[in-house]
Specification:
With 501 residues, the protein is α+β, with helices and mostly antiparallel strands. The chain folds into 2 domains: 266 residues, Glutamine Phosphoribosylpyrophosphate, subunit 1, domain 1, CATH 3.60.20; 164 residues, 3-Layer(aba) Sandwich (Rossmann fold). It is built from 18 helices and 28 strands. The strands form 8 sheets. The chain has an 8-stranded mixed β-sheet. Strands 9-10-11-12-16-17 form a 6-stranded antiparallel β-sheet, with helices on one face. It starts with a strand and ends in a 9-residue tail after the last helix. About 6% of the residues have low confidence.
Length: 501
């Protein structure tokens, strides 16, 4: 039986242009966050709280699917933030039961120019052995080829999302159980994925063989379990962190029992290194390490590699803060909040006309003038993508009377697009793809500009010998151009891989 959905909402009324924030378009964005809970009453409320903690991974839309024996499957999908949608009693009453999964989305795949409610996950499928819902974090790099094949075989797609391919592949599998059908489907999929799924009785979690995207398991009290993109989502519901789901592992949770399966050929892990730099919340843990402490170590390593004589170390809020603290501690240069973030920014309260757009980041960030005036300032940020925001911040610092502006970046130059679930501009729009470091310094108009080296980044995340060039320990394709999974669809469209040295 298809899941019940809220009534009175047509597909037409639930579509809108994909949101591109006019004042925050110079950051890489994670595509989504996923969460699942089982064995607890009102599981959808736990899921909503988990999604709220994962809101940084996707702010465009969210959805929840639940199961309750007398009601069957139910679903709610909404545009906007979790706090604006999944805190309402009428919305949460529509997804009852002790088993639920959810998803928050920032679109990269899917319909271009306009996003539809049908693109919002979790997706649901009805099979001969019962229904199943699935939520996916990552990106399927052979989705175009799979979609063409499935359409030729008679599949009818309802969305523009690459994730829907998984449901159709499951439908065509000849296996007798939904977990086995999911294994069949995911063996056909290339790219990066973490998946949470549910049947009437099971909560399922899977990571791709390389473990590019994160997924963790938590315990809720004595009988409940949770799956989440990050440990911070377990903290918000008071769950105990059990462990990370291993690369290539599938866990099936039923009747308070967790079973582990290994449906894929064993491969060396290539976890996304940018999770350490920016994507994950600083209060999460990755690979047994505090994200905050790792970012502080990145700042310390950066201070060793690129010292500069200055008066203040200031973070670009908020993502540059831990690295700036580490830089300050290592260098001995005082740390200061030279830039103050407006915590109530959200969407602009006025229409973003061209005049307002020209205000740049001033609606979001403001310079602490009394602190900055006459000082030689080191600005620490997590990355430089297009460079547009960096230029505006530099102008604000100089307008406030700074004597010098030095940029220190807590990641290597981002010179290659990501095809594994991160919204990255086309390569020609990446500043580091077309300019040398000195050319970027001149373009940004700063006194000096230095990025942490790739080896330095690896040392900061715990690899004492740096990056193993023959067998990199992480996925670092956005810096190195070395893709651990061939981006088949992009090559078909004309994308050129980096030539072997």
């Amino acid at each position: 039986m298809l899941p019940k959905t809220e009534t009175g909402m047509s597909e037409k009324t639930l579509s809108r242009p994909i949101s591109t924030h006019p004042f925050d378009d110079d950051k890489l964005r994670e595509e989504c966050g996923i969460f699942g809970a089982t064995g607890v009453s009102e599981a959808s409320s736990f899921v909503a709280l988990g999604l709220h903690a994962l809101q940084h991974r996707g702010q465009e839309a969210g959805g929840i699917v639940s199961y309750e024996p007398s009601e069957g499957f139910s679903s709610v999908r909404r545009f906007g933030l979790v706090r604006d949608n999944f805190t309402r009693e009428d919305v949460m009453a529509a997804v009852p039961g002790d088993l639920a999964i959810g998803h928050v989305r920032y679109s990269t795949a899917g319909s271009k120019g306009q996003t539809q409610i049908r693109d919002v996950q979790p997706f649901f499928g009805e099979f001969s052995m019962g229904g199943a819902a699935i939520a996916h974090n990552g990106n399927i790099t052979n989705a175009d080829a799979l979609r063409r094949e499935l359409i030729d075989l008679g599949s009818i797609f309802q969305s523009g999302s690459d994730s829907e391919c998984i449901i159709h592949l499951m439908a065509r599998s000849l296996q007798k159980t939904i977990p086995e059908r999911m294994k069949d489907a995911l063996r056909r999929v290339e790219g990066a994925f973490s998946v949470v799924a549910m049947t009437r009785t099971k909560l399922i979690g899977v990571r791709d063989p390389l473990g590019v995207r994160p997924l963790v398991l938590g315990r809720i009290g004595n009988e409940g379990w949770a799956l989440a993109s990050e440990t911070c989502a377990l903290d918000i519901i008071g769950a105990d962190f059990e462990r990370e789901i291993d690369p290539g592992e599938m866990v099936v949770i039923e009747n308070d029992k967790v079973t582990s399966h290994r449906p894929f050929e064993t491969r060396k892990s290539r976890f996304c290194i940018f999770e350490h730099v920016y994507f994950s919340r600083p209060d999460s843990q990755l690979n047994g390490r505090s994200v905050y402490e790792t970012r502080s170590a990145i700042g310390a390593e950066l201070a060793k590699e690129a010292p500069v004589d200055a008066d203040l170390v200031c973070p670009v809020p908020d993502s540059g803060t831990p690295a700036a603290i580490g830089f300050s501690q290592e260098s001995g240069i005082p740390y200061a909040m030279g830039i103050i973030r407006n915590q109530y920014m959200g969407r602009t309260f006025i229409e973003p006309t061209e005049q307002i757009r020209n205000m740049g980041v001033r609606l979001k960030l403001n310079v602490n003038r009394a602190l900055i005036k006459g000082k030689r300032v080191i600005l620490v940020d997590d990355s430089v993508v297009r460079g547009t925001t960096s230029r505006k911040i530099k102008e604000m610092i100089l307008d406030a009377g700074a004597a010098e502006v030095h940029f220190r970046i807590a990641s290597p130059p981002t010179a290659w697009p990501c095809f594994y679930g991160v919204d990255t501009p086309q390569r020609e729009k990446l500043l580091a793809a077309t300019m040398s470091e000195e050319e970027m310094r001149h373009h940004l108009g700063v006194t000096s500009l230095k990025f942490i080296s790739l080896d330095g980044l690896y040392r900061a995340v715990g690899e004492k010998s740096g990056r193993n060039a023959k067998e990199p320990q992480y996925c670092d394709a956005c810096f190195s151009g070395e893709y651990p999974v061939t981006p088949s669809d992009q090559i078909e469209k004309g994308f050129m891989l980096k030539a072997a040295e």
